[in-house]
Design brief:
Pfam families: AraC_binding, HTH_18. InterPro entries: AraC-bd, Homeodomain-like_sf, HTH-like, HTH_AraC, HTH_AraC-typ_CS, RmlC-like_jellyroll. Keywords: DNA-binding, Transcription, Transcription regulation. The chain is α+β, with helices and mostly antiparallel strands. The protein folds into 2 domains: 170 residues, Jelly Rolls, CATH 2.60.120; 105 residues, Homeodomain-like (Arc Repressor Mutant, subunit A), CATH 1.10.10. The chain is built from 11 helices and 7 strands. Strands 1, 2, 3, 4, 5, 6 and 7 form a 7-stranded antiparallel β-sheet that branches. It starts with a helix and ends with a helix.
């Protein structure tokens, strides 16, 4: 696919990039292997460019910036600028503005900050993750990926460009929604659920998560409110009741599938947990 066709695909698939509390109107995506340069002009929107190869100059406010491979540069709204003296200047660019009526105040502030950002020139960025994101977007457009993929990559790229020029505020950084102990317990609960046919001894599960058995036992008691062994037994019975209701497996098979060492032990624990035998439970819950 030609570069021009790739850009047309991108324009169709990512002309309005919508994310969480954010709507971005993309006026145009662009790419040119030999950019011809531009006269002095200005926009009412943002335009951000990346130099794939070649050289040239970007001028803004009577200041010249050298364009060479690996350079990002930002044209802010209402600032006179031009690109000139290009020599095999291969550029990617995107022009966009925020649709305020569909964007939260928090997201609007990010781009208000971009509009007054003084650092508009970032050289030596070939290994920056934003470059990889932009190239990935172009490759997906070249492969005629779905509009959903192009939209998601498009909004991610523009947010990445904003943070590239402005940095990341503390309140933008991912924050844990729970403490480390709760996270371990939640992961252990998933592990138990996925491996109910295994012995699931406290020692084995603690070893899997690289913590001591005593620590795992304490975390379960503090977080779940019951001892580890009681939790495992409860989960085995919960799974057994589901299998009794939804399958025709024998009681012996269900005992094996749920990790019980014998059908006799299974029936005894089942009776303790539900007050009826597995056979009676099946009879009462037959469809």
């Amino acid at each position: 696919m030609s570069l021009a066709t790739t850009i047309r695909t991108l324009q169709r698939g990512a002309s309005c990039c919508v994310g969480r509390d954010l709507s971005i109107r993309v006026h145009y995506w662009g790419a040119d292997r030999k950019h011809p340069g531009t006269p002095i002009h200005k926009h009412s929107f943002f335009e951000i460019c990346y130099v794939i190869d070649g050289t040239g100059l970007y001028s803004e406010n009577n200041e010249d910036f050298l364009l060479e491979k690996g350079t990002f540069f930002l044209s802010r709204p209402h600032h006179l600028h031009r690109i000139h003296k290009g020599n095999n200047l291969f550029l990617f660019w995107v022009a966009f503005e925020i649709e305020k009526e569909n964007t939260s105040e928090k997201q609007q502030l990010l781009f208000e900050k971009l509009a007054i950002e003084d650092s508009i020139y970032i050289p030596n960025s070939e290994d920056n993750a934003t470059v990889l994101l932009w190239k990935s977007l172009m490759q997906h457009a070249e492969q005629t990926s779905s509009a959903d993929i192009l939209n998601t990559l498009g909004v991610s790229l523009i947010l990445s460009l904003q943070s590239l020029f402005c940095g990341i505020e503390d309140d933008q950084r991912p924050k844990p929604s729970y403490d480390k102990g709760r996270k371990i317990v939640e992961e252990a609960q998933r592990f138990i659920k996925d491996n109910l046919d295994q012995p699931l001894s406290l020692n084995d599960v603690a070893c899997f998560f690289h913590i001591s058995p005593r620590h795992l036992s304490r975390l379960f008691s503090e977080t779940v409110g019951i001892p580890y062994t009681y939790y495992v037994r409860h989960e085995r019975i919960r799974e057994a009741t589901k299998k009794i209701r939804s399958t025709s497996h024998s009681i012996q098979s269900i005992a094996d599938e749920c990790g019980f060492t014998s059908v006799h032990y299974f029936c005894r624990v089942f009776l303790q947990e539900t007050s009826i035998t597995p056979a009676e439970y099946r009879r009462r819950n037959q469809v």
